[in-house]
Amino acid sequence: MTLSFSQEPKARADTAASLGQRTATGSPMIQVAQLDKIFEGGFHALKNVSLEIQRGEIFALLGPNGAGKTTLISVICGLVRASSGSVRVDGHDNVSDYRQARAMIGLVPQELTNEAFTTVWDTVSFSRGLFGKPKNPAHIENVLRALTLWEKRDNRLLQLSGGMKRRVLIAKALAHEPKVLFLDEPTAGVDVELRREMWEVVRQLRDQGVTIILTTHYIEEAEEMADRIGVILGGELVLVEEKAALMRQLGRKELTLHLDQALDDVPAALAGHDLALMEDGHALVYTYDVTQQEEGTGIAGLLADLEATGIRVKDLHTRQSSLEEIFVSLVRERA
């Protein structure tokens, strides 16, 4: 499946270094400055949020329910008016130059709001017309084929499964050939196989120059696709970092030592290494900071002490913290 847009195609950039090469020559696609949103009743949904999103990147916004993810997207898209601060999309202010800014954006909302009795073809074509774009059946066909909707083009939306309805929302967002695509929980309620197919569509869009911003509850989704990660908690953007750098800075590694003979407890000679006895005494688990250089991890000293105590190791392996573990740790720290 290949999507084709009017923008110049861009080569795949799977590393942070190549992402930097792509984005260094131009201004950010989205610029958010000192954004606040206070709803009636005094609820402070966004607190001094500033953020720049580069052209052609996939940016994942993580946060628990009520953290402000959907509010931030709604403000950027011009659906909700900020209490203070500014948003620019490809240089266009989203208040004073609303039509130009909004025309740059495709939005896939979290809720399934499709018109039940409209056909797939008609609802996607209508979405294109809403932005003043001339009819382009070839583009609509291309989008529907890429999203595996072509065979369903004459079906009414009420005849579709939840996963197919989710794809129709993406097709509608792509109908007017946007440069920016917001995906608010794009794979909620979608089975694993369909989710991975949709990930591939998102990657194709990114490779052709479309800037992708997604919110998700699926940590694996951000870990699989994102170039950068933002974490929002209580309306505050508490962290923005390249995914690989985030996992290096905040991740932990576990060294598991599988023992030749089981231990009843950790020997006193090893007490200074903060070891945990696991697997009914058949394994020792040592946790260390991945940002430390090898000589600073304590592993060399641990192995020397193990040898001195006569404990024999028959196997060992390491495991790095997942993005989910890092996220949970951040939430706990802010609680």
Automatic annotation (TrEMBL):
Signal peptide positions on this chain: none
Domain ABC transporter: 30-259
Gene3D superfamilies: P-loop containing nucleotide triphosphate hydrolases (3.40.50.300)
Domain of life: Bacteria
Region of interest called Disordered, as start-end residue ranges on this chain: 1-20
MF term (GO), any: ATP hydrolysis activity
SMART domains in UniProt: AAA
EC number: 3.6.3.-
Keyword tags: ATP-binding, Hydrolase, Nucleotide-binding, Transport
Transport is among the record's keywords: yes
InterPro entries: AAA+_ATPase, ABC_transporter-like_ATP-bd, ABC_transporter-like_CS, ABC_transporter_ATP-binding, P-loop_NTPase
Keyword presence, Nucleotide-binding: yes
PANTHER family assigned: ABC TRANSPORTER ATP-BINDING PROTEIN
Listed name of the protein: Daunorubicin/doxorubicin resistance ATP-binding protein DrrA
Gene: drrA_1
